[in-house]
Protein: Universal stress protein A
Organism: Clostridium gelidum
Amino acid sequence: MKKIKILVPLDTTERSTHSINWIKKYFNKNDIEIILMNVREVIVAEDLLKQENLWDMREESNLVLDEAAMELEGYTVEKFAIFGYASDQILKKAEEENCDLIIMTKSTKKGLVRMIGSVTSKVIKNAKATVIVLPK
């Protein structure tokens, strides 16, 4: 039987761990493969592009992924960190890996940022895989 391949985008907020808890509740570890993903959006600014800043961002991504992987001990887990626009990178990874599901948590952003759009809404509109959005 083919395992279900699940992409789980994570950010640095605690709410993103809801995806992990939900997976553990509803999926048997023998039935799925999980790709944990962290995308760091880099704003092009003179001070930000210093090598040490990029290194710190990479380390933070690795920490987020390592903590999530520990929560999923016993599951088949791959960790993936990248720089770029979150929605674009999530869609690209899901397609490259032929993922069956993308599991995300609902944004907690308010106001203007929320009205303009979000990573989650772009993924929902453009993903070829089924997208599950969990409330906070």
Q: What stands out?
A: The first strand starts at residue 4 and ends at 9. The mean pLDDT is 85.
